[in-house]
Specification:
The chain is an alpha+beta fold. It has two domains: about 10-200, no CATH class; about 220-345, no CATH class. Helix content is about 30%, strand content about 20%. The chain has helices at about 20-30, 65-70, 110, 115-120, 130-135, 185-195, 220-225, 235-240, 245-250, 295-315, 325-330, 335-345; strands at about 10-15, 30-40, 45-50, 75-80, 90, 100-105, 135-140, 170, 180, 200, 260-265, 270-275. It has an eight-stranded mixed beta sheet with strand order 3-2-6-7-8-9-1-10. A hairpin with a 3-residue loop joins strand 11 and strand 12 (about 270-275). Helix 7 (about 220-225) crosses helix 12 (about 335-345). The protein is globular. The termini are far apart. About 35% of the residues are buried. The structure holds iron/sulfur cluster (SF4) (2 copies). One iron/sulfur cluster (SF4) binds near residues 248, 279, 329 and 334.
Amino acid sequence: MNSAKVDEQTLYQAATGWLKSAVDILLGAGVEVIAPIETDPGVVELAAVNSSEAVALDYVNARLPLKRLLFPVTEVLLEYEKQSDGDVDVKSEPAASPKDVVVIGARPCDVAALEALDKVFHWDYDDVHYSGRREGTTLITFACTKPGPQCFCTSVGGSPHNSAQSDVLVFLEDDGRALLQVCSDKGAKFVDQLGDVAKPAPAGSKLPAPPEVKARFEPEKVKQWLDESFEDDFWADVSLKCLGCGACSYLCPTCHCFDIVDEANWHSGQRRRNWDCCSHPMFTKHASGHNPRPDQASRCRQRVMHKFKYFPERFGQIACVGCGRCTRACCVGQNLVSILTDIETRAKGGANCDA
Ligand code: SF4
Ligand code: SF4
C-alpha cells in the first residue's frame, strides 16, 4: 500500500479475524502490543497482551487513562553515586526506549487527550522522556459504540468517532470485520502490515453514524462566568464535599502535574518524577510555610479554572475531553458536569447550585 499522507483519511475493510492477525503480526515483529483487557469483573485496563484472545471489545473506557503509558506514574530522571574520591557520578537516564509500541483499542477521548499532553511536554522544554515514548507509539483507536452515562465528549468538542491524534480509527462490525480509517503515516504502516487482511473499502463505503452523546453545557458560557468569578462563594459550596484525595486528577487523561523528588541515602540516589495533583494541600505549599491555595475551595477552583479557562487561554483548547472518569471515580459523588451546568446557569443569570 502506498503511504497515506497525514491529512488523508483513507478507509479500509478488514476481514474477520483481523484483530488476531494484527496482534500476531505485531508480536512477531517484536512490537509491544497494548490492548484493553478485563482485569476484574467489569474493570478494563490497557495492558500488554500476548494474544488477541483476551482483548475486550465491548467496554466503555479503560479504568486508568492512556496517558500513563506515555507519562508514567513514576519514572527515574537520573541516578547519582558518591565516589571514593568524594566526587559524585551522575548518570542521566536515557530518553525513553525507542521500542515500538502499538496500542489497540483505546477510546477516542483518551487518544484526543494526548493533544493537551503534547502541548505541555513540548512547550517551554522538550521532554525527551515523553517524546521518545510518544514517537514510538502507534494508536489504533476503537470508535465508541456505547458511551457511558458520564460521557460528555460532545460538550467539549469531541465525539464518539473523534479521530484526533489517532493513527487508525477502527469501527468494529458485528460479524468480526472492521472498517479502518487511516489517519496518519503510522496508521498507513499498520494497515500495510496487515497485508490482505485489510483491503481498500469499496467505493461509496460509509462510516456508521456515531452514537448520541447529548451536549450538556456550552464551554464558552462556562468560561465567560469563570473569567469574572475567581472570588465567588460558589467555590466554597463546591468544595464542601471534596476530600482532596486526588482521584479525579490521577485518572484524568489530560491532567499532567508532576513533582520531582530525590530518593537517596548517604551514598547514592535517584531523581524521580512522580504524578502530583492540584487537589492536594501540599501541592502549592512553599518552603516558607505559606500556601497560596490554603483551602479546598481554592483547590477545587484551580482544577476547574485550569481546564476551562487557563489552559484554553494558553494553549487554545479545553483541558477536558469529557471522558467522565473524574465523576465515576469520586468517592463522594462530586460531579463535574453538574458543576459545569451550574456554572452555565450562573453565566445565564441563574444560580442553582446542586453540585
Ligand atoms: S475525586 Fe472527588 S473527593 Fe477526590 S479530590 Fe476529586 S473531587 Fe475531591
Ligand atoms: S476532567 Fe474529568 S471528564 Fe474531563 S478529561 Fe478529566 S477525567 Fe475526563
